[in-house]
Design brief:
The structure is a homodimer of 182-residue chains. Chain A has 182 residues and is of the alpha/beta class. The first copy, chain A, has seven helices and five strands. Helices cover 43% and strands 15% of the residues of chain A. The interface between A and B is medium-sized, with 17 and 17 residues.
Chain lengths: 182, 182
């Protein structure tokens, strides 16, 4: 492949909706196709970039602002960036889109899953605490989640398998010439 | 050129020593040679990455920690990164070196210039304020600058022109195969 076009796949959705479950195999698939890939999520950036931030609206926006800067720089240098962050606020996501589109393509993926299903999965054991009022500013429970209005892709993770979601994203990237076919 | 090897040129030195004066033409020269280049300095990252940070040791270290994360990601994706930061603390620079060497090459450039000369230049009008006690934690005046012990390159900016300094860095990069010759 010649010089790779940079893009950012931005996975947004509730905690437990399956963002990371999609992001990891997507990362592997793009790497297997010979692309340069960086995956960013809360666990990856917390140590180095966002250790001072909590979960207020201001802190969440700051978090996304810093990540956006990193994704922008990588994107404009031809890297395939996969970001998975709850990123609940529409306005902040719109700013992210604007910044990244100056650098390359921005592919917003709405990882849609009903709150009840996320809470039932409760991968990190946080919903129980949130419903018990022991965690403040918990998205979907005590803090809003503003669903994307025009995402490039929607994955309904309560109704489809991870493989199907990943395949949907890959197909989109292939069709636009961002990824070679597998 | 085939796949570009990533590296970070890290310019450290007092305020007014000439870090940015070297970084900007270096950026241009590397770009002219067909490399992917990103230049990072305080002005560039303040808005997006470090707006919350001041000049205490803790804040300076945090600043460098965040920049290092970004430089590391760019470096391991084949970008030529040019960082110019006072970065006064040896231990923090050593950590930066360690992190970036896992991603590619780290080229520490000590931009050496006597304090008196920097203060005389006083590009930003800050030394006057610092000597008058109106700025706290000012490197070289009220805060230490720990000079590198084994930098890859030293530029003596009080004794050589910017062109000479830039040429010295370029020669180093050419000799190691990081940059094609101009």
């Amino acid at each position: 492949m010649r010089d790779q076009k940079g893009f950012t796949v931005w996975l947004t959705g509730l905690s437990g909706s399956g963002k990371t479950a999609i992001a990891k195999p997507l990362e592997g698939a793009l790497r297997d196709r010979g692309l340069k890939v960086e995956r960013l999520d809360g666990d990856i950036v917390r140590q180095s970039l966002t250790s001072d931030l909590g979960f207020t609206k201001e802190d969440r926006d700051q978090n996304i602002k810093r990540v956006t800067f990193v994704a922008k720089l990588l994107t404009r240098n031809g890297v395939a960036v996969i970001c998975s962050f709850i990123s609940p606020y529409r306005e902040r996501r719109a700013e992210t889109r604007k910044e990244i589109e100056e650098a390359g393509a921005f592919v917003e993926v709405f990882v849609e899953c009903p709150l009840e299903v996320c809470a039932q999965r409760d991968v990190k054991g946080l919903y129980d605490l949130a419903f018990a009022g022991k965690i403040d500013n918990f998205t979907g429970v005590s803090d809003p989640y503003e669903a994307p209005e025009k995402p490039e892709i929607v994955c309904h993770t309560a109704e489809e398998t991870v493989e199907e979601s990943v395949a949907r994203v890959l197909r989109y990237l292939e069709e636009r010439g961002f990824s070679p076919t597998g």
